[in-house]
């Protein structure tokens, strides 16, 4: 029987969010629970917060957890905006122990991959065929790549070198805020980044997400590129929804 509900946790550099998810609608059930990310954001400190969120929800099924990291077979291999002690940590085992679950009941995945899974399943149907790249603009630039709806995990397109710079250091949403750029000024940088990326992977569709997608009308129309650009429909809940869906399907195993 296909699960109709799941639980997802989205770990970010500033906040850790969790919620129960309706896996038929791709929507949160009730409110999401958010706790500030502990500083330093060590594996043990973060695991304590995750356990608190799951406990508060009184959820006893499988749990999906996102990390801002490359995740292979449950182990983190990088750490973006979280403590570097995550690198080399078997996160799946850590969370399983802290939550009192078997390793099979915990699914770890990259945060952008989770957001992408949610958009592919519950967003624009056009994303399910051909090559689709989801890009989340936030503190950095996260990416998720799909071919005919199947995930190619752990792409790191935010770190493409563009004009001698790491792309996310020029075109992340945080850079817009930190440098006081207007939307048109920032859109020029996003345009340059996307034009480089589209010439490398020749996608059929870009989906743009992250908090800045709420103001999509101020910058997406300024992107004059070959590839169609769609705005993410689940916005900041995509990571939670994708994590819950991955856990329900045992996608990490």
TrEMBL record:
It comes from the Bacteria. InterPro entries: ATPase_NBD (IPR043129), ROK (IPR000600). Gene3D superfamilies: 3.30.420.40. Transmembrane segments: none annotated. Keywords: Kinase, Transferase. The keyword Kinase applies. One of its GO terms (molecular function) is kinase activity. The keyword Disulfide bond does not apply. NCBIfam families: PolPhglucPhase (NF045942). Belongs to the ROK (NagC/XylR) family. This is Polyphosphate glucokinase.
